[in-house]
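Archive record:
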Amino acid sequence: MTSLIVGLDHVQVEAPAGCEARARAFFGAFLGLPELAKPEALRSRGGVWFGLPDGRQLHVGVTPDLVPREKGHPALRCADLTAFRAHCEAHGVPHRADDEAGVPRVFLRDPFGHRLEVVHGGTRKRPRRPCPLRRPPRMGRMTDTTPRRAEVERDTLVRWLNEYLNVGAYPDASLNGLQIEGTPVIRRIAASVDTSVKTLQDAADGGADLLIVHHGLFWGRPLPVVGPHRERLRTAIMADLNLYAAHLPLDAHPEVGNNAMIARALSLQGARPFGEANGHRIGLAGELPFSQSLQDFADRVQKLTGEICLVHGGGGPNVSRLGILSGGGAGAVAEAAAAGLDTLLTGEPEHKHFHEAFEYGVNVVFAGHYETEVFGVRALAARLEDEFGLPWQFLHHPTGL
């Protein structure tokens, strides 16, 4: 008989309770896999889901009495194994390389002690289902295996985004919302922190109909359509690509915002608004579950973001009361001190604010503007997949800043 099985959907890795921060740090920040929103009915079980570039998924699931796997293991493909080994070495991740199976490969351990294999080989594309594991299509006859591709009208999707993000509530230099109008039907989404010729072209090459960004093209002043600005517009228009930007509304969002995602990964407790920007508080402040040394905290953040942190130790040796303000929050030291916080976590430093950390007695941990703002666009894209069944891809173009 003809097989009813059409392929592999996902693999699951076992992890202990409370695994989410470590899973996000390793599979998300270190391996660069986008996080997927779990179905509402499964979220109470804990764990995290991640997407793979070929459309399959890797699930980290909670299991009692965890025993690390020595033999059974997932094997991921990597287009540049030499670069991956350098990535491991740069982040201090132990690994072993061999080619005994006739193909170059690397073995390492995930945060839970399981064996993980990374094999040299490019991405193999497969047809994407409308919404993996979230809203499977209603089954008709068993012989009907034709995949049904999700699609949504652009204007419907834009209205949903505008309402979900409450874009009109935030005075912002960024033109938030739809910045470039493209095809009227959306079937695939790309997400990126920044807008550049490279990200626009990568989105088009990947078959995206909509690119969602944190930093768009328009910032409160008219620009002549010349040079790089012209090329960016031309790239999007030639590809019939929609461009949607969400700046402060995405920083501030309580579910998928950059600061909310970081706070969740760090298990921040008693979260409350913090970090004033144009009359709104877009960050969060709260308490860590336990006090930890400033060095241990910086190491934890580095594992989460993948960025080596710059630390200005203006306060005490320990971190317990934390303010989070992604991106360019160096100017929030005085507000952090007034709120009784001992540490501020933000993106990039500014020279004019250097002395404030030491004068106000507040530690400041800089984890990178780019790296602290990858979380929102990824979470928003995953939320759209959950809502509309639209597949998505994160375009990773780190700036090192």
